[in-house]
Structures are given as structure tokens and as C-alpha cells.
Amino acid sequence: MVQKTYFKTKEHCKVKFTYNGGDAQTVEVFGLNGDWQTPIELKKKKDGTFSTEVSLPKGSQHEFKYRVNGNDWINEPEADSQGPDTFGGHNSIITL
To answer: pTM (2 decimals)?
Structure first.
């Protein structure tokens, strides 16, 4: 799940990424701001979900994917859209 919070007086949007973990031990998000090398770790909550909040510039678009347990690449089903990646699959896309 992706939740966006816009601020009238700021040039960024707060975005909360939530992943329903199931049997996941670790969840990271890759690709925000075009950075596919540095993951952002989602923290595990008591209810078993994982989440993190980041600030992203208004008027921007970001491709991203979750990496679960260090090797499973998962798209966000509630992303704004999906787009092709360079590996023959798809990335999730968020538009702010």
C-alpha cells in the first residue's frame, strides 16, 4: 500500500510504503529517486506488516520495487501504474 500526504507549504510529499509481510523476514524498497543501488529498509510492525515513510519531491515520478527476504522482487499492486523494466518485467510507478 502507498499513502501520500501533501503539504501546501512544502515542495515535497510524505509517502508511506506498507507491505503486508506474510512470512517475510526483511523488506526493502528500491528505485526511489532513480537509486537502484541503495535500499530503504521497511521496519516490521507488531501486526506483521512492514512500513517506512520517505519525502519525495512534488511533481515527480518514481519507479520502484520491493525486495523481500533479500531475493524476491515484488511490485506494489496499489501503485499508480506499472511500467516495463530493463529485465523484461515491470516496475511499480508512483506519481506525485
So the answer is: 0.91
